[in-house]
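Table S2 (continued). Query chain:
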Amino acid sequence: MKNLKAIKNFKTYVGMRNVKTALAVAISVIVAEIFHLQSPFFVATGALISMETTVKKGINAGIARVLGTIMGGLIGIITVLIAPSNIFSLFLGTVLLITLLNILKWQDSISIACVVFCVIMITMTNENIVLYAFQRTVDTIVGIVISIIINYLISPPSDYKFAKNKDEDEIEAFIMRIPEKIDIKE
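Corresponding output:
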């Protein structure tokens, strides 16, 4: 009886979203290593910040974060070209980036855009700045895509909520439509 309570408590704290997030991070690092991506850290970060409570929210968050990653990279390139390794340009670039994303109504993109911007500003070496920003952006996007795929393929939360309140006929009809959702031909 005590073991059942321990299992229930464990499941309270370690839910499917927790497991899927950890899996997305682990797979991201493996993919980064297999394809020799420049920064497994950014691939993992992209996956980590993109896991959401539903597949639809995950896709929407992924799109917002891709846009933020690209914008952070672009502003980072421009800022480094004007004044590299300058704390004042870091400050102004961050203000500009947040303001621009607010004007565009891309608030969900702000955090990742600022992360990419700060990484470019703080860690930029004598490398080609365009290549460096491009690599950071690609690494982050790979992680975002992996997170969306994991959320879609493994126990999609929106499907669970759907099934919870439906009768058997509705559930069967839903299951029969799954191949259409993932483009499987019979």
